[in-house]
Description:
The protein has 228 residues and is α/β, with parallel strands linked by helices. It has a single domain, classed as Spore Coat Polysaccharide Biosynthesis Protein SpsA, Chain A (Alpha-Beta Complex), CATH 3.90.550.10. Helix content is 33%, strand content 22%. The chain contains seven helices and eleven strands. Strand 4 (46-51), helix 2 (56-65) and strand 5 (72-76) form a beta-alpha-beta unit. The protein starts with a strand and ends with a helix. Cytidine-5'-triphosphate (CTP) binds next to helix 3. One of its GO terms (molecular function) is 2-C-methyl-D-erythritol 4-phosphate cytidylyltransferase activity. This is 2-C-methyl-D-erythritol 4-phosphate cytidylyltransferase. It catalyses: 2-C-methyl-D-erythritol 4-phosphate + CTP + H(+) = 4-CDP-2-C-methyl-D-erythritol + diphosphate. Belongs to the IspD/TarI cytidylyltransferase family. IspD subfamily. The record marks 152, 208 as: Positions MEP for the nucleophilic attack.
Amino acid sequence: MYLLIPAAGMGKRMGSDRNKLLLTLMGKPLLTWTLQAAHASQEITWIGIIGQSYDFPDFKTIMAEVSGSKPVELIQGGETRQESVYNGLQALPSHAQQVLIHDGARCLATPLLFDRCAKALQTCQGLIAAIAVKDTIKIVDESGYIQDTPDRRQLWAAQTPQGFEVELLKHCHQQGRTLNWEVTDDAALFERCQLPVKIVEGEETNLKVTTPVDLAIAEFILRQRLNL
Ligand SMILES: Nc1ccn([C@@H]2O[C@H](COP(=O)(O)OP(=O)(O)OP(=O)(O)O)[C@@H](O)[C@H]2O)c(=O)n1
Ligand SMILES: C[C@](O)(CO)[C@H](O)COP(=O)(O)O
């Protein structure tokens, strides 16, 4: 299974002065943890890391430090996550039929989650890891008043990995560019093209490190996991 890791962001919500994936968690860059999990997956055979060229020297150091026998390629990122994934898709080897896409910022995803998604992709055209929403969610209008309380049983929080047949996802990205769709994940492009996307059980600990508090929570989870 081919894996693309979007890692070309800035981390504005983190408020750091550089790519948040280079910030450290228990002494190692966030991207190191993500890459380690990808290497430990039994199903992943090829890894593409999508980054900005100014981060490539640091990414190369990380790639050299994380042991693993899988080929790892660096791919030039874009202005948005959507553009970065588009670039990643163009850089896949021509014979790649299916691909998983996993945010570098979800650095606590386990190898088992990669494997579960890779196996599930043998039975569908598109999928995402997701978890059932625990909160009661309100739909609120522009004046700050609640308009609706959707049935929580139908609400799932999207995660990555997200997996797709390569040719279909390329087509959806092309449609997105032609029609100026702006989306925050790849499943949304599939949905807009009326293609089916299956839910695969995600992991509660598979948080996306977005703000400083996420980094503190990630450290707590990792300490528990490593018995430290
Ligand atoms: N132009 C971009 C923007 C984001 N990403 C990646 O997409 C993932 C999810 O994005 P997000 O958490 O929003 O990361 P940032 O864009 O870095 O954060 P922010 O939105 O706070 O600036 C991250 O692994 C990020 O590196 C990317 O590859 N290319
Ligand atoms: C793809 C994603 O990680 C799914 O949760 C997410 O949508 C990335 O972008 P966001 O803008 O931080 O939601």
